[in-house]
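# nightly structure sweep
# worker-07 picked up a monomer target from the shared queue
# config: single-sequence mode, recycle default, output format = structure tokens
# input follows
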Amino acid sequence: MTPAPIAVALDAPDLETAAHWAALVTPHVSTVKVGLELYMRYGPDVIASVRGASGVQVFLDLKLHDIPNTVAGASRAVARLRPAILTVHAAGGPAMIRAAVEAAPNTMIAAVTVLTSLTEDDLGRIGLVGPADDAVRRLAALSVESGATALVCSPHEVSAVRAEVGDGITLITPGVRPTGAATQDQARVATPEQALADGADLLVIGRPITDAADPGAAAAAIAASLRRAT
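# output follows
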């Protein structure tokens, strides 16, 4: 059975828990995601620990955002760990995105458009003009022009982004919550079925799986619901 297009966010308190969650979910999902906190605490060792013997894809979600030379160096440093996906902030601009792409040619560089925690009011206060849809579309187009082959956007914008960039770009959507799950700190959310129907390629799901009594069973249930929906 083909694993579901889900990246499980391993926001664990320690390395052992992250590796345990990864082992439980990898029969059911294509990808596990290592975020900034886990990577900062344990460094490169975390990648091998969560990859294990399964060879599951690792999504390294560092959201790099600095001058192009610094981002190039950081991308080159982590590329040796063979992550399938590495994130940078689209707001870093074309030269920065291009630097990451050139420094890590065997890694999919995913540009983060607008964080799913931000509301329309937040966008105005930080100076991003227009509603979220418009800001995301502008950043998506800029990122693809700069060589990014993947984009991170909320489920609310995925349909508009797909129309903007076409079918050749991988769209990754955080803010995915199964029906009945709490939204927590995510402001722009959708169900897994809806996100896929709107054009997403990879769904980032964390706490609805990792907070479950049995993360493996939770991942399997969501994977099954996606197979039924398609």
